[in-house]
């Protein structure tokens, strides 16, 4: 389903003033709870090695895997460690560990150093897969090369999984089947709203780089604020309880990308970024005066580059910050609104997995991360991440109601069903700077559709329902 905001504006202009202006429509109340405390840094310690992070991930996800193992393969097949394997034994067993993907084309700091000293020039790549990529399984003590049904092109480093098979000659493990720690449904299900309630999802505004995005964005702000459409349309807009900006609101590309003179370009881009922040503050002031607003940082926004990205400081938005309805959120972001739990990222984990696997469909990647039970499994291998030592905040303990990824090439959605019947709405939020569209989510039914605010909307932003 696709709705054009220009039609809404036309309805307002066609109505007599006394018929559309004298009616006051109140926005519905909303219940909200921020569940993202685990993504916020209380103290920062960068002295830890990433070994502790991987060890804690395996330790935390093993209890989630055991019920899946028993459900899929029963209790008769033994669960062993790599140290218990015997090369001359063909007995079937189950091994639990973390996948490591050996890739010759993976970027390396050693290769960058060799480029600096002009030893071996390295080609610029956007994808890093090769036919010779191999999977290796690691547990607490050892590692073993995997063969068989688990394809290296459909996996990445950092995934915790269980494999069923037997060791072969040469110290290799032949995989017959495998399973992942897909989280179950929540132990205490929430109560969804009995009436229609909507959340608007936006990403990739790129206010610093796209001059043609200002008018569509102004239409979006006017539509959410209730200034577009007739009385009937305004009553529907009053059912929107929240608007979420899922990253790259200020910028969608790096400041020095393709610059011949980086120091000159950086100065100019700094000016454009400051101007974009002021423009965003003006728009946020209009929004926060009528509706709660969540704003997440993205890959190229002025925030820390490592996941989890910390909330944008409210001093960046002096006008909007005067309203309590402005909520600066981290990336990833986990929250509960009107009886629905929503969690998602600004898109970096999905983009990273697309580079290091041969899974081209972004919605499929989003679904895989849900099945893997982890928001950012490729961190810290190929995705920059804070070096946690005693926890892994990206682990999904239970299934949410909505799972989204921002800054994707096109709008895609799917209703995922877990083994226990739990339904999760998966959403790929398109870039507003290219599609001029946002996503409208119905919290009651979990249905969603795009709302268009420009004539540049192409077929790639149409809903893909799978």
TrEMBL record:
Pfam families: DNA_pol_D_N, DNA_pol_E_B
Listed InterPro entries: DNA_pol_a/d/e_bsu, DNA_pol_D_N, DNA_pol_delta/II_ssu, PolD2_C
Biological process terms in GO annotation: DNA strand elongation involved in DNA replication; mitotic DNA replication
GO cellular component: delta DNA polymerase complex
Keywords of the record: DNA replication, Nucleus
Gene3D superfamilies per UniProt: 2.40.50.430, 3.60.21.50
Record-given protein name: DNA polymerase delta subunit 2
GO MF entries: DNA binding
Location within or outside the cell: Nucleus
Family: Belongs to the DNA polymerase delta/II small subunit family.
Domain DNA polymerase delta subunit OB-fold as annotated: residue spans: 49-178
Domain DNA polymerase alpha/delta/epsilon subunit B: 199-412
Chief location: nucleus
PANTHER family assigned: DNA POLYMERASE DELTA SUBUNIT 2
Coiled-coil regions, chain positions: none
């Amino acid at each position: 389903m696709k709705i054009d905001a220009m039609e809404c504006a036309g309805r307002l202009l066609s109505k007599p003033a006394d018929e559309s202006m004298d009616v006051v429509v109140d926005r519905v109340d909303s219940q909200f709870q921020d569940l993202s405390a685990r993504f916020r840094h209380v103290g920062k310690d960068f002295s830890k090695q990433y070994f502790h992070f991987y060890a804690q991930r395996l330790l935390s996800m093993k209890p989630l895997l055991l019920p899946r193992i028993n459900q899929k393969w029963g209790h008769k097949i033994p669960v062993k460690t790599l140290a218990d394997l015997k090369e001359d034994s063909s007995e079937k067993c189950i091994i639990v560990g973390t996948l490591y993907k050996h890739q010759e084309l993976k970027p390396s700091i050693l290769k960058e150093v060799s480029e600096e000293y002009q030893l071996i020039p390295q080609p610029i790549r956007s994808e890093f897969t090769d036919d010779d990529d191999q999977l290796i399984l690691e547990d607490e003590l050892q590692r073993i090369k995997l063969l068989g049904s688990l394809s290296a092109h459909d996996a990445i480093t950092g995934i915790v999984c269980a494999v069923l098979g037997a060791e072969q000659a040469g110290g290799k493990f032949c995989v017959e089947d495998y399973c992942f720690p897909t989280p179950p449904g929540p132990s205490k299900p929430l109560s969804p709203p009995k009436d229609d309630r909507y959340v608007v999802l936006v990403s990739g505004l790129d206010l610093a780089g796209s001059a043609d995005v200002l008018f569509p964005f102004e239409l979006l702000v006017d539509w959410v604020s209730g200034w577009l459409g007739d009385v009937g349309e305004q009553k529907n807009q009053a059912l929107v309880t929240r608007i979420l900006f899922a990253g790259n609101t200020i910028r969608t590309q790096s400041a020095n990308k393709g610059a011949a003179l980086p120091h000159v370009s950086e100065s100019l881009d700094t000016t454009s970024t400051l101007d974009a922040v002021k423009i965003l503050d003006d728009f946020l002031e209009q929004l926060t005066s009528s509706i709660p607003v969540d704003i997440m940082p993205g890959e190229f926004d002025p925030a820390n580059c490592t996941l989890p990205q910390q909330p944008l400081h409210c001093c960046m938005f002096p006008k909007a910050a005067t309203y309590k309805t402005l909520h600066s959120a981290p990336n990833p972001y986990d929250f509960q609104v009107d009886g629905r739990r929503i969690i998602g990222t600004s898109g970096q984990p999905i983009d990273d997995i697309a580079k290091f696997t041969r899974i081209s469909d972004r919605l499929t990647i989003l679904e895989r991360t849900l099945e893997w039970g982890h928001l950012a499994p490729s961190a810290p291998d190929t995705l920059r991440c804070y070096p946690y030592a005693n926890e892994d905040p990206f682990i999904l303990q239970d299934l949410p109601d909505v799972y989204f990824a921002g800054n994707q090439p096109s709008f895609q959605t799917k209703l995922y069903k877990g083994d226990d019947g739990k339904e999760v709405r998966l959403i790929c939020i398109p870039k507003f700077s290219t599609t001029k569209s946002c996503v409208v989510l119905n919290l009651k039914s979990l249905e969603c559709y795009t709302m268009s605010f420009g004539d540049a909307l192409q077929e790639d932003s149409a809903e893909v329902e799978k």
